[in-house]
Amino acid sequence: MDLLTPEFGLFFWTLIAFLAVFFILKKYAWKPILKALNERETGIADSIAAAEKVKAEMAEMKNENEQLMAKAREERSQMLKEARLEADRIINKAKDDTKAVADKMMSDATQQIEQQKMAALTDVKNQVGNLAVEVAEKVLRKQLSSADSQSEYAHALAGEIKLN
Amino acid sequence: MEVKRRFSLVVLIFVLFWSANPAIAQHEGEASHHEAVEHGHNEHGEAKEEKGFDASKVIFSHIADSHYWHLFDWNDHPVSLSLPVIIYHPEKGLEMFSASKFHHGHESYNGYHIESGIKEKIISEDGASIYDFSLTKNVISMFISVILLVVIMTNVGKKYKKNGSMKAPSGFQNALEPIIEFIRDEVAKPNLGNSYLRFMPLILTVFFFIWINNMLGLLPGGANFTGNIAVTGCLAVVSFVVMIFSANKHFWGHLFNPPGVPLGVKFLLVPIEIISLFIKPIALMIRLFANIMAGHIVILSVISMIFIFSGISVYVGAGFVPVSLAFSIFMFFLELLVAAIQAFIFANLTAVFIGQAIEDPHHHDETVKI
Questions:
Q1: Which one of B131, B146, B156 has the shortest CB-CB distance to A9?
Q2: Cα–Cα distance between A37 and B156 in angstroms, integer?
Q3: Does B63 lie at the interface with A, CB-CB under 8 angstroms?
Q4: pLDDT in tens, B287-339
Q5: Residue A82 counted as domain residue
Q6: pLDDT tens-place string over residues B28-61
Q7: Hey, is the C-beta of B270 within 8 angstroms of any chain A C-beta?
Q8: pLDDT, block means (10 residues), chain A with 164 residues
């Protein structure tokens, strides 16, 4: 039973020491420690939230980028298609133009050739006419002397015409 | 396995050696008996007890508080530090002197003398009731632990202030942080709800104060501080006072006028409620006191067995050394665990009691386990 009766002195000192420890530690240990722990926890929570937000933003930006890219790609293919059409058109036009010019040149050339041919023919005709007249003249002149020499002469003249 | 085998071999050798020499054992026993009888003739019964090993005296002199810090005995003389005695006498006023003036209770000084039963008591020879504020072994041990606690905790606190909150903890901070977080998350938050931050300093102080004192008490030569009922009583009073002063209207209303109870039952219920209010701190006080004191007694008893058996024969005593050591090592580990567990339980129950006192009215149906 002796052990169960508390000593007043020890009670007194324990109370003083405990209260002193309590107030000292409250001010210099528990307050800063608990504050720091709380701050760290809220800090970590904030960081995670911020990271989450940034991630969402990134995803959104990526989405936007992809949309832009798709649009650009579409535009590019549109432009290419248009360019090809345009090129085709230009080439066709050029071809047509060239063909027209060539045709005109051809027709001009044929016409000219025709004309020159006609001129040449006319000239030939005229010369042949003249020659024929000349031959006829010479034949007529020689007819009076002899029949043999006459035909001989005619042959000679004919040979001359050939050579011309 | 190897160690176990060797250990049992040593035990076997001791036992065989003792049983092979019954003559020696017999002789030793007789010799000590002779001596004891001779002493008994010279100085009556007192000396007889001093010569033999008195386990209960050794154990209780350790368990109880003392005005000396006893280190060891040398040639039958105790080597100890004499601690300051402070006495308040209602007529003579405050007096302060060293306990060495009492010469280990053999002499009286200034009209006071030490009476040592299970406990040491300073008695005034004029019969006046005096107040003993002496800085006893327990008080000095407490001062040491208080200094340790303050130095460690304020240093850690400084580190938090210096490093800010977002730097990883280092050194002792690392050891303390999980404990503080454990107390906060497992003790304070579940019991105290939103107002946990208000009571955190108290709960942390209670926990660390009890823990460090429990641990220092386990050191060889350490004081049985937390196994003293005055100490646990003081701590229980502190948590009781905090509980009473933070209690809300709802708590008092339920205590003195339980709602929804017939008038006749109220006369029965209110006294029970009031008694249970006071039983809470008493339970706190007894639980810590009994646990720590029991641990000290068990360890000392196991060690004492060596000397009790060597009273029968030196060889029995020596043979019992390994057994006793193994037991006491086991008990030390258990007590290390108990030191933390009891500190935790005290802190937890303090939180539970305060939590009951500040409970919000709307969820009073929840049962709170004690």
A1: B131
A2: 12
A3: yes
A4: 999 999 999 999 999 988 888 888 888 888 888 899 999 998 999 999 999 99
A5: yes
A6: 333 333 333 333 333 333 333 445 678 888 888 8
A7: no
A8: 80 93 93 90 92 96 95 96 95 94 92 90 88 82 69 78 65
Residue B362: predicted pLDDT? 63
The beta-carbon neighbor of B139 closest among A10, A32, A38 is A10
**Are the beta carbons of B230 and A14 separated by less than 8 Å?**
yes
**Structural domain contains residue A5:** no
Q: Is the pLDDT of residue B3 over 80?
A: no
Residue B257 and residue B334 in one domain: yes
Q: Are B153 and B100 in contact (CB under 8 A)?
A: no
Whether B230 and A7 lie within 8 Å, measured CB to CB: yes
Same domain membership, residue B152 and residue B48: no
- Amino acid code (one letter) for B283: A
Q: Do B118 and A3 touch (CB under 8 A)?
A: yes
Chain B residues with CB-CB distance to A38 below 8 A: 165
Residues B186 and B227 in one domain: yes
Length of chain B: 370
Distance separating alpha carbons of residues A91 and A85, to the nearest angstrom: 10
Q: How many domains does chain B have?
A: 3
